[in-house]
Amino acid sequence: MYFSLIVMFICISIVPLFIMRGILLVNVKNSLYSERVENIRQHSETLAEQMVSEDYFEETDNEYINYQMTQLASIYDGRIIVIDSSYTVVWDSYYRINGKQVISEDALKCMRGSQVWHHNDELDIVELSVPVIEETQDGSQILGALLLSSSTATKTEAYIQVRTTSTIVFAIIAFLMAVLVVLFSKVFVKPFKVLVKSINHISEGHFEDTVHLKGFNEIVQISDAFNKMLVQLKDQEESRQEFVSNVSHELKTPMTSIKVLADSLNTQPDAPKELYQDFMKDIVEEIDRENQIINDLLSLVKMDKKAGELNISKVNINEMLEQLLKRLRPIAAKRNIELAFEGFRTVHACVDEVKLSLAFSNLVENGIKYNVAGGWVKVSLDADHNYFYVTVSDSGIGIPEEYQDKIFERFYRVDKARSRETGGTGLGLAITKNIVLMHEGGIKVKSREEEGTVFTVRIPLSLDRQEV
After folding, report:
1. pTM over 0.85
2. pLDDT in tens, 213-248
3. DSSP label at 335?
4. Distance CA 286, CA 282 (A)
5. Are the C-beta atoms of 352 and 391 separated by less than 8 Å?
6. To 5 degrees, how large is the angle CA 367–CA 372–CA 377?
7. In angstroms, what is the C-alpha Rg of the chain?
């Protein structure tokens, strides 16, 4: 990036600077030579008018006109050649080609009434051709032409001086800009080098460092976003370690109980049949508990996979919830818990019925498990144009406010002793949240201790990737 920035800044600053210098020099050069040409043209046109008025081509020995041409040639340090309509030289300020014919491209154009000029770089002169035109009642008549050449050595010297000065000035500016570009590139790239160093450090497993970048507002925003990501990674790493620890503990606990029970039986070979039956019953319960934990773990692993594995179909949500409550009523009846369903409208949605049933079943079962004897659990269903909403409320023991942000974590249980009594594994709400997220939905909880809990689930009526 460092060298790329330098090249980029050179291309957008220094290169245009030298292009501008080139254009400036061309304009200066043209301006210097054009100024000389314009002065010569004015004098030449005046001289051509005098030649017409003095009938110079009738009497070429006109001393006044010849003197004027000599003076003009001297003023502009050049040469003047006069040709008549037959391209014959009638006067030459160098007196070399009098009486000879001059047929050149400039002379031909001039005899057609055009003024022509150009700069001869090799000889460092300006050459100008001016027609001598006589205006009559019958029209205009070209009597001849003035072919003038003038030295531009002084103009060239001025141009060279301007070019040399501009080269020095632009070189200094380019050098200063190059230094600024290098310094700016270093300053600009430095925060990213710090960021790369931090990323490499984090990749080695060090999550305790934070990055504090200074510079542009966007750099500071990157620093803040990176630190936020770092906190999340740290939390995820701690959560992962805690999850592994919890899994080990939860799987080990039933196995420990089974081992203790089995060892007790082994140490009592003459134990009565009733004791054997009680111990075997406890062993079966611990095996069932172990099996439930394993099944929940497998379900959670499946939930962690991409939502593309959803088996989407069009489902009557009202019927799905009613069937779910029907299955759970016997469990609720054991504790005298009333289950109620309220549907404000008939709702059809494209969802994975099996997974979503599991999610709502977990919420209702929690409402039953953590309720008071003789309490109630109410399920309500509503919808708008885009989503349907399921609310599961209960009259249970509630969740302390400080724990409400953690209840969706794996194996997290507010009251572990009570959870063990009710047979909870601490995975139900984690599974529920994953299922809701797979459906691109959301879940919220509101609860007050000893007053009950309300879970609100929002699910889209259809998914973009639905497979009906």
Report:
1. no
2. 666 676 777 777 777 877 777 776 776 666 666 666
3. T
4. 6
5. no
6. 35
7. 50
